[in-house]
Amino acid sequence: MVRIRPEVRAEAAAWLFAVRLNLAILALAGLRRVENVYLQVDAGILDERAYGRIGFGFYRTQFSGEVWKRNQRIFDPDFVAFFEERMAN
């Protein structure tokens, strides 16, 4: 068994935390982008073809799903319903 020095383990944990935080921020920014498209379609500025340009696959990953579940309360309630339905299909 390989032993990892405590200081190396602490450094790796800090690095992993930073990476996860950066990915969470990226996921939230992407979710805001999707919400913006939704609100523009709802307002008649864009047509529904705009949804085809989003690329929902990223939001179906386990990590993005966790970010969504932790933060969905900060989004427009109508968007939450739309997004949940979109993720279910």
What does this structure look like?
By secondary structure, this protein is mainly α. It has one domain (23-88). The chain is 66% helix and 0% strand. The chain is built from three helices and no strands. It has helices at residues 6-42, 62-71, 77-88. Helix 1 packs across helix 2 (62-71). The chain is elongated, with a radius of gyration of 18 Å. It starts with 5 loop residues before the first helix and ends with a helix. The mean pLDDT is 92.
Uncertain spans, ≥5 residues at pLDDT below 50? Answer: none
Q: What shape does the CA trace take? A: elongated
Structural class: mainly alpha
| Global mean pLDDT | 92
| Tally of helical runs | 3
* N-to-C CA distance: 45 Å
What is the N-to-C order of secondary-structure elements (H for helix, E for strand)?
Answer: HHH
Beta strand count: 0
Helical fraction equals 55-70%
Rg, alpha carbons: 18 Å
Largest beta-sheet details: none
Beta-strand content bin: under 5%
The figure for the number of domains is 1
